[in-house]
Specification:
single chain, alpha/beta, 3 helices, globular
């Protein structure tokens, strides 16, 4: 049975982790949480395309909110780049 994995922060480390998860077919669902929704959705689109090209057809989602993460099997927390933001504090407290 494949897993649901949540990655907090979609910077270089988060995207590298997501790519590895897709390449190794480790999950059936991958969710990226990041406060920068515009950039996040662009990265999610790239990851979905990568998943399809590799024949994984993984459910890849991006969100600025914490909805639907309570039943996740694994959480990956990466460090955000730049100055801390208010949303980073919310992630740290979750």
């Amino acid at each position: 049975m494949k897993k649901k994995i949540v990655i907090f922060h979609a910077g270089q480390a988060g995207i590298a982790a997501a790519q590895s998860i897709i390449e190794k077919d480790l999950a059936s669902e991958l969710i990226l949480i990041d406060p920068n929704d515009g950039l996040l959705q662009s990265k999610v689109a790239d990851l979905k395309a990568m998943s399809d090209v590799l024949g994984r057809f993984m459910d890849v989602k991006g969100s600025i909110e914490f909805a639907n993460i309570d039943d996740a099997d694994f959480f990956i927390l990466t460090c955000p780049g730049g100055a801390p933001q208010e949303s980073d504090q919310a992630i740290a407290e979750a």
